[in-house]
Amino acid sequence: MSISIIEFSVENFKIFKKKVTFSMLSRKNEQTFENNGQSLLRTSLIFGSNASGKSSLLNAFAILRQGIILSANNQEGSNLPYVPYKLLDNNHRPSFFEVIFCLDNKIFKYNFSILKKNIISENLFEVSSEKEEKSYLIRNEQEIELFSEFEKSNDVIAKTRKEVLFLSAASQWNNDLAIRIVKGFKNINVISGSDSGGYQGYTIKLFKENDEMKKKILDLLKKADFCINDGVVEKIELPDIFKNQLMPPLKNLSNEADTVYFSHSKFDSENHQIGIEKFNIGDESGGTQKFFEILGPIVDTLENGKVLLIDEFDNSLHPFLTRFIIDLFEKSNNKNAQLIVTTHDTSLLSHKDLIKDQFWFTEKDKFGAGSLFSLAEFDLLRNDTEYSKKYLEGRFGALPFIESI
């Protein structure tokens, strides 16, 4: 189910006191693809100092995605992920989330707002090329109105509890449009670069079960100059120290696990190749492990035209590797997949094949409130400007203020 992100907004969530909007829209150029009459970017990069809202923005999107996919499973009386801006006295306003996206040759706008214990509002519209909105769902707490394709799901209204999104509930009760939207959002993934180890198993699974994916992953490892010739998945026995840490339900599982062994050329004293040496991935460098771990989601996203958001993208990766990944989405992206990352790698601001529209910044004011803005808002800048130098000079803001020691 092909899906593309147009815009995402959030308000009164963590650092974001006021509404901020992130956009993948741009003028038509080499960095964009056309979808439903919209020129959309393939990649966008978000910069900013620590604690300025970069991770909060991606966390907000992850909450919206999880709500669409899993909200119907919320237990009665369960808490919702309500984390309002806390530096405002008596702030009891709802948190607001909204996404505009392309799906099935149509453009949809979906939003909801929440408090700790209940959904406050929920709306779904189809947006026409003339910017007119066709209503499917309008909700004010437990007052729910349905239109068009959703009208056939009137019986779901009574089954939708106050802590459950109607869209998620309707998908479980076989509403076709809701099912398509949920499937679309399952093709969007949000991962953390600092904690990508959780995706190593997914990459190993692709490596083991899909020969075409294995070939692509190996090819990218070779192009990235890790001196790897080949790789194979083998079973290893779990060490006792690991098994002893498992909780009782997991202790009865297999004592073995899949791991990857990479083949490297072996040389004699005269530098003649005399064979190969196999390395368990655990014995490879941290950078090799990190790159392999995120290659599964990256290759899957590119091959299937999905959307991938990576927080702390440059964690443990050399600047040449981050640029290499960006180039995959810019130059080897026939399915128009999208990549959105947060990063501190300012060298990417000097990437000659990227334009102003692809660079975003988060900034925290003296009251602790976060803002979000695009480099495109700086009208006097040319696309051939050395953005990295000007950013570090403080021309765009979004830098930490660090006192001298």
Largest sheet data:
7 strands, antiparallel
Low-confidence stretches: none
Estimated share of beta-strand residues: 25-35%
Strand order of the largest sheet: 2-1-6-7-8-9-10
Radius of gyration: 23 Å
Q: How many structural domains in the coordinates?
A: 2
The CATH C-level class name of the largest domain: Alpha Beta
- Which architecture of the largest domain per CATH? 3-Layer(aba) Sandwich
* DSSP E strands, number: 18
Order of helices and strands: EEEEEHEEEEEHHEHHEHHEEHEHEEEH
Q: What characteristic shape results from the CA principal axes?
A: globular
Cα distance spanning the termini: 54 Å
Number of helices: 10
The assigned structural class equals alpha+beta
Describe this structure in words.
With 405 residues, the protein is of the alpha+beta class. Helices cover 26% and strands 29% of the residues. The protein has 2 domains: 1-187 and 305-405, 3-Layer(aba) Sandwich (Rossmann fold), CATH 3.40.50; 198-300, no CATH class. It has a 7-stranded antiparallel beta sheet with strand order 2-1-6-7-8-9-10. A 6-stranded mixed beta sheet has the order 11-15-16-5-17-18, with helices on both faces. The longest helix has 19 residues, at 286-304. The model has no long low-confidence stretch (mean pLDDT 90).
Keywords:
405 residues, alpha+beta, 2 domains, six-stranded mixed β-sheet, 26% helix
Task: Write the SSE topology.
Layout: E1 3-11, E2 20-23, E3 32-35, E4 38-41, E5 43-47, H1 54-70, E6 95-103, E7 106-114, E8 119-127, E9 133-140, E10 143-146, H2 166-172, H3 176-186, E11 188-192, H4 200-209, H5 211-223, E12 230-237, H6 240-243, H7 248-251, E13 256-267, E14 273-280, H8 286-304, E15 307-311, H9 319-331, E16 338-342, E17 359-364, E18 370-374, H10 387-392
Parallel strand pairs: 5-16, 5-17, 11-15, 15-16
Antiparallel strand pairs: 1-2, 1-6, 3-4, 6-7, 7-8, 8-9, 9-10, 12-13, 13-14, 17-18
Helix pairs in contact: 2-3, 4-5, 4-8, 5-8
